[in-house]
Structure formats: C-alpha cells, structure tokens
Amino acid sequence: MSIDFYSASFKDFEDVPGLNVYERSAYFTQFLSYLKSQDRLNYRLLSSSPCSPEMDVHVEGSSKPRRMVSFVSNDYLGFSQHPKVKEAVIKGVEKFGAGSGASPAIGGHFSYHQILEDKIAAFFKRKDAILYTTGYTANSASLMSLLRKQDIAILDMAVHASMYEGCAYTNVKTFPHNNLDALERILQNTKGTYRTRAVVIDGVYSQNGDLAPIKQIVELTKAYKAFLIVDDAHGTGVLGKTGRGLIEVYNLFQEIDMITGTFSKTFGNIGGYVIAKPEIINYLKYQSRQHLFSVTATPAVHGIIRAIDLIDEEPQWMNRLWNNIDYLKKGLLDLGFNIGNTQSAIIPVKIGDPVLNAESARILLNAGIYVNPIMYPAVSRKDARIRLSVMATHTTEQLDKALNAFQKVKTIIH
C-alpha cells in the first residue's frame, strides 16, 4: 500500500496493511522527513524557557532558539509562573521530597492528596473527588471502569480523545456536535435496552472553543434517566462569575452526575480529577486500574492547592484573560478570518485546506508567532485550522504582533 504524503495525516499510519511494527515505523519516519522538508512539521518543537506568553523555541535551521510569542499553552491564567504558586511548590517539595513513592492503595496517599481532593470537590460545591495523574486518564480510566458490555456511552462527536478511549469496553453511539434532536433520538431508541446510559460531553470543546448547550442536555438526561458526564477542562478558570466553568454559568453543580477536568490548564500543573457522588468515587478508588496501580502525584501538587485559592483571591486574572480574548477575536474578525463560534480562550482560525493551513503555520512561525496547525483526525480533513490559546498574561503588544503576522497569512488564503 502506498500513501500519498502530500495529503496524508498521522492517522493514515496507525495500521498500514501488510507492514509489521518496524516497517510501519520506518514508513512513518519517511513521512515525518517529508513534512520536515516541506516546512510542515512544527510539532514537538523544543522550548528552553518557561511556559509563558513568550518562549524560546528551537526551530529547524536555526543555530540558537528564537524568542516567539506563544499561543500553544493552555495555562490560561498564567498560574504556572505565578510567584505564589511556585512558592507553594517549593515548600511542598522541601517538606515531602520529589516523589510520592507508591500507588494510593499501598502507601502513596499523602495529606496533600487528601487536601487537594477535598479542595477541588469543594471548588465545584461537592464533597467527593478522586485524583488521577493526568486529565487524560481521569477521563479514560473512569469511563473504562464504569461502563461495560451491558452499558452504552452516548458521545458528542467532538469530545476529547480520552473519552473515546474510555469507551473501549462498552457500547458507543455518537451524535453530531451539539445536536440536541439527535441526542434525544438516541435516548429514545436506547430506552430500556442498556443497564446504564451515559451521555458524555465537554463544557468547552477543545478544537472549536464553543460551548455545550448544557442546560438543555441536563434536562434531556434527567427526562430519560441517563447518567451525565461533563469534562469542563477548558471552561474552568475561564467561564462563570467565579471561574467554576460552564457548570457555574447555569448553576448546575448538583445536576451533573460526574464532573471531570484537569490541573494542567487553569491550575498550571499536571493531573486530573473526577467529582461525583461518594459511592462512585469510592468505587473508582478501588476499581479504576489506572488510579489503583499508578504512583500518585508528587508534592508539587501543593501548587495546585494554591492555584485553586488564587482564582477567588485574584479575580483580575480572569478579567485580563477576557480582555485579551475579546481584543484578539476582534482583530481576527476585522482581518476577515473565520473563527467559528468560539466563546472561550480557544480561538480557531479556520483555514480549511490542510496544505494552506500548514503554510499558514510556517508563515506565522517565521514571523515569530508560535502556533499549532490542527489537522485531521483532530478535525475533519476539510476543516484544518490554526488554534490559538489566549493567556491572561499576553500583552497588547504581543497580540498586535500576532495580528500583524495573520495579515501576512491573509495574502495566501484570499
């Protein structure tokens, strides 16, 4: 089988017929070399400076790193660099050391883990939570544990890949993104057929930056006695009067069966969490294998504990974030770009053609703007885009530099 490198995506190499693991890997390496030769491989670039609005990035053909304005980070409030967060991390490491040494069941559950579980649950006005080492495994591991052959997961087609992976052991149906009529048809058609019917949605969708019609979905799931799982990783710290996300916007804290999220975005660290009724949390603590058999998070999570408090103590960061979001959106719209229906800190600049999209990313990189081109399978083949993640700590000058670079992009797509 021969793959056309010009129009290929990473997904085309997942399972090439007739090629064993070495042959498939070698073929994929050829594809990577082709992308590099075409200046279309700006993934896994090496950074040698902190995660911030400007980063030192090593690019092909440059002998030293280039200082670039960065739009690749989901550190929306800039808390990974907040002095109070870093101070909390240092104190935590000084007291407890560099690691936790064991899984939670056999000695790796420390006081700071319990404090964090209690604090993130209380943040969402609930009482019980479980920690995972990443946000990805919070989704995949919890769904794998809860949903089996007699159950069904009903997924919005745009949910995160971790949710799809979590449904490996259960039945799956998907509905077109945010299509309430399609969701209701599935709920009607599956009534009485499965033991548990779990509707799985995001609060903010990671590729479009748009929002779920969460209030109507809550009403539908209750009417059809389904179980609702909401991942609001990209809404936490961004939406709601006090940063509790889309769930806060509609005051649905007690209406969601399971809330999932990550500490790697607004909270500036790493890890994930699931919040639910105590019976479910207790079940996951002893039945979710990725939790049960993974070493627990390091004492650096003291930084997360401090970051949670800072959302309430220093609301100015959310205000600055939204000033930057509004400024950049207006600038891109004035230039004539399609940014979809984003209502969050994620701004997709929709180019469409994947080759033009890659060329746009190259132009931006050469202009000192560090961005990610998003291609199939993350989005459909005809819906390639440049995704921008806005931070509270971006300056107006940095945003203007990005807009000037997009002016150059406009010349190749119009």
Defining key terms:
alpha/beta; 2 domains; seven-stranded mixed β-sheet; Aspartate Aminotransferase, domain 1; 414 residues; Aspartate Aminotransferase, domain 2
Q: Would you state the CATH class of the largest domain?
A: Alpha Beta
Which ranges are low-confidence, i.e. pLDDT below 50, for 5 or more consecutive residues? none
Termini Cα gap: 36 Å
How are helices and strands ordered from N to C? Answer: HEEEHHEHEHEHEHEHEEHHHHEHEEEH
Structural notes for this entry:
- The chain is an alpha/beta fold and 414 residues long.
- It has 2 domains: 131 residues, Aspartate Aminotransferase, domain 1; 232 residues, Type I PLP-dependent aspartate aminotransferase-like (Major domain) (Aspartate Aminotransferase, domain 2).
- The protein has 14 helices and 14 strands.
- It has a 7-stranded mixed beta sheet, with helices on both faces.
- Strand 8, helix 8 and strand 9 form a beta-alpha-beta unit.
- The longest helix is centred in the C-terminal third of the chain and has 19 residues.
